[in-house]
Amino acid sequence: MDYFELYGLPISFNPDLKLVKQKFYELSKKYHPDFFINESEEKQQEVLELSTLNNKAFQVLNDPQKRIHYILSLKGLLEEGENYKLPQTFLMEMMDVNEALMDLQFDPDAARLSQVKQEIDGIEASLNQELESLAAAFDAQDPSAQDATLREIKDVYYRSKYLYRIRESLAKIK
Question: Locate the J domain: which residues (predicted)?
Answer without folding.
Answer: 2-74
